[in-house]
Amino acid sequence: MILTTVAALTSGCGLSAELEREADPARTGARTQPQPSGTGPSAGARTLPPGDVAPTASVDAQGCPDTGVLVSTGVVNAAMGLRAMPVTLTNCGERDYLLNGYPDVRVRDVDRKRMDVTVLKGPGPITQLDDPGPHLVTLKPGESARSVFVWRYSAVDAATRRGSGVYVEIAPAVGGGRQTVRPEGGLDIGDTGLLGTTAWQKVVD
Q: Which residues does residue 45 pair with via DSSP β-bridges, in sequence order?
């Protein structure tokens, strides 16, 4: 069941309870079937202004970027109009890696043009999901931290639905080397144009 999957991916973030509330606000025990992700309007694309080019991390022969951390995304989960996607950052280097705060995010369309999406530090006003807030996270080699990206799906005419072709550039913090990922299930942010993030939190097995 989708709620169980999300809970396992984002343990400690309170996302399972929030999706439960979205799916069954009256607490009747009857849940609405999750909407498929990747079907929604993307925000309007715009050309990058001069100088808006992020440093990009190169990757060594072992698949570890020169920054010493590797970013990956999980499956997009949905409950009613709420979307949630876990983003994991793993220390693949040989030294400790420090985090404190929120990831730096840019969203681009299929042509790699930057989309008009406002990235929030925190999940509000999108949802009531708990956010640990900025705090020092020390990752030893092999350890991971997680942020949860949340947004609202806005239904429109099927002819205008987009979102599956977007790319997301993610850096551990502002000024860090960004890594480009293509989320499984797309990023159907819709006309809200808002993407919420939670602060990095260490993954505890």
A: 115
